[in-house]
């Protein structure tokens, strides 16, 4: 797969916007996909967030391997990065509010000591396309949708939404594009639907997916597509060809690739995590 070049002007503008909005908030929710917490991060955000409290929100936890998610949360906490995992489509998102208060505890206590009570905490969501920003925003705001007015110094177009008893959300989430030179990261993003289908070769992504599931959950592959252990032991290209035949697509492996990708996105092969938790911090440094 060729390296995907995002339109540089686009990227720069998005970064500028995020930088401006950062001045308006107390804390940032950096949304990443629980199935690929590192690959769905924009590396430039790290610099921007250097002096701003932030929480890494692993979205779509219902699609990810629970063991891996637990491992990732532990890993981030160890690295000093507060993190939570959520399914934004259902359940309570109180875990986020709780974490926000935990991270800002000192700041809130200091204000309270000055007699400032019932403080509203200003929050913004940031993340790559399709990571679940709108879903999370809507869920946090629920029926509470309310414009709480422009703050001094806030651009007229900025609106704040009331969420829960104490949060104020910036209504426009920051959109950043994934930035990657590593083709493997591109394949992971493609497999989960984070980047446009026109930006990659389906068979490249399908071959990667087959390798991943062959390593992590061969049973799911065999059961769903009536494959044998011998098929799995063959080369990945042969495996894709056999899968194509099993799907009834004769030699149209492009069509089979598309079907496989679609089914994996829909969770038909079960829950999965594509980024593995590093064994130790040392391993990350050597990466
Ligand atoms: N299963 C699952 N799907 C989610 C979750 N959050 C978002 N989605 C789905 O992901 C897709 C993209 O979500 P959206 O909020 O539009 O992403 P945005 O581009 O970041 O605003 C939609 O189909 C959502 O229903 C989640 O936690 N679990
Ligand atoms: Mg959106």
UniProtKB/TrEMBL annotation:
GO terms for biological process: translation. Keywords: Cytoplasm, GTP-binding, Nucleotide-binding. It is found in: Cytoplasm. PROSITE patterns: G_CP. Required for a late step of 50S ribosomal subunit assembly. Has GTPase activity. The lineage of its organism: Bacteria, Bacillati, Bacillota, Bacilli, Lactobacillales. GTP binds at residues 87-88, 130-135, 174. Its main location: cytoplasm. CDD domains: YlqF. GO terms for molecular function: GTP binding; GTPase activity. It comes from Ligilactobacillus agilis DSM 20509. Residues 12-178 form the CP-type G domain. Pfam families: MMR_HSR1. InterPro entries: G_CP_dom (IPR030378), GTP-bd (IPR006073), GTP-bd_ortho_bundle_sf (IPR023179), GTP-bd_ribosome_bgen (IPR019991), GTPase_MTG1 (IPR016478), P-loop_NTPase (IPR027417). This is Ribosome biogenesis GTPase A. One of its GO terms (cellular component) is cytoplasm. Signal peptide: none annotated. SUPFAM superfamilies: P-loop containing nucleoside triphosphate hydrolases (SSF52540).
């Amino acid at each position: 797969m060729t390296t995907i070049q995002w339109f540089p002007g686009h990227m720069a503008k998005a970064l500028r916007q995020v930088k401006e909005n950062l001045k308006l908030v107390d804390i940032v929710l950096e949304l990443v996909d629980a199935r690929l917490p590192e690959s769905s991060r924009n590396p430039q955000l790290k610099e921007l967030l250097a002096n701003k409290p932030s929480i890494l929100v692993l979205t779509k936890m219902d699609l990810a391997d629970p063991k891996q998610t637990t491992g990732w949360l532990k890993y981030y906490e160890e690295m000093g990065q507060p993190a939570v995992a959520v399914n934004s489509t259902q359940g309570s998102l109180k875990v986020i509010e709780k974490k926000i208060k935990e991270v800002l505890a000192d700041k809130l206590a200091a204000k309270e000591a000055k007699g400032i009570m019932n403080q509203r905490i200003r929050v913004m969501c940031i993340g790559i396309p399709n990571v679940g920003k709108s879903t999370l925003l809507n869920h946090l705001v629920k029926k509470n949708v309310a414009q709480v007015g422009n703050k001094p110094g806030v651009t007229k177009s900025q609106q704040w939404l009331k969420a829960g008893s104490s949060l104020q959300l910036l209504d426009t989430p920051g959109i950043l594009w994934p930035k990657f030179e590593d083709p493997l990261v591109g394949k992971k993003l493609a497999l989960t639907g984070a980047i446009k289908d026109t930006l990659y070769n389906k068979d490249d992504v399908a071959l990667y997916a087959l390798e991943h599931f062959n390593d992590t959950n061969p049973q799911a592959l065999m059961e769903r597509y009536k494959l044998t252990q011998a098929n799995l032991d063959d080369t990945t290209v042969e495996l894709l060809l056999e899968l194509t035949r099993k799907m009834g697509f004769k030699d149209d492996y492009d069509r089979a690739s598309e079907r496989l990708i679609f089914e994996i996105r829909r969770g038909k092969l079960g829950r999965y995590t594509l980024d593995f938790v590093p064994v130790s911090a040392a391993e990350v440094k050597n990466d």
